[in-house]
Amino acid sequence: MQALRWHNTKDIRLDEVETPSVAPGRVKIKIKWCGICGTDLHEYLAGPIFIPVGTPHPLTGDKAPVILGHEFAGEIVEVGDGVSDYRVGDRVTVEPIINDPDSKASRQGLYNLCDKMGFYGLAGMGGGFSEYASVPASMLHRLPDSVSYQQGALAEPASVAVHAVRQSRFKMGNKAAVFGAGPIGLLVIEALKAAGAQEIYAVELSPQRRERAAALGAKVIDPAQVDAVEEIIARTDGGVDVAYEVTGVPKVLEQSIDCVRIQGETMIVSVWEGDAPILPNNVLMKESHITGIIGYRNVFPATLALMEQGYFKVEDFVTKKVALANVIEEGFETLLKEKDQVKILVSPEQ
Questions:
Q1: What pLDDT score was predicted for residue 88?
Q2: Domains of the chain, start order
Q3: Whole-angstrom Cα distance, residue 277 to residue 173?
Q4: Quick one: which of 174, 258, 299, 325 is 20 to 30 A from 348 by CA?
């Protein structure tokens, strides 16, 4: 079968690989759609970040080259021994976190904070940019009847947004700012709507992405035209309750810290490629909080329930759909060249 594999920085290839077979405790999935994640782009441009190179991953035993793709949904075509909760024909999405159940974090229920944590589609085991995947049944979530495969491919990034809002100090009726209206930033806006935000400010340079943020109900700010911090403070009488940083840009992190009210919070959602200087006095003089999240935990059911209620619609977030055969040029390269793109979905069936 065909699969997109990461070989090295700026070296991803569509390779012919062996079709995976089902194994005890696993199911074989025929992949319908897989989303290109910002993390995939980070790995392409500046990796390895999560990809094991040289030394095999401690849990998967794999190392580069590895198949990419961790935002995917598909149909079960084969069930391995010991799997009783799923059957052939089930429509599923995948929660791709790999963790050691015996680690201290996992024993506390914080499996996304396991010190050996990895992601299916980054740390080995297979990946969603392929025709088939053999996936542990423990990673599966059944799609509700009203949720399409394409929407199922959004469940993973949407869960990042739901987890970010849940883990923050945000409360119903609060005001929030989202810095960056890319895929995760837009999903955070949607999660904030579902959580009962009074006002949501979206700070974004791209006019196309500002337009999408506005369509979701956010009050948009163009940082090229106004000072975003001054604008937010003026409109909110002192700052927002929570700011979500979703860009990975040092200057933007500084802005997201400066725009919160006294004792407000900055939640770091993006994965960073390098260091970011901040002035600690800007934190301590307001007794504000800086928090971060990685991935998600225990939120996929809530995300799928929100999808049933009409949140996280495909048309609000997906800007392009491409075939697996064209994933490099029409997927990865397009996202790098066209800043108005948001989420690109990939299918081996196109």
A1: 98
A2: 2-154+312-347 (3.90.180.10), 159-292 (3.40.50.720)
A3: 32
A4: 299
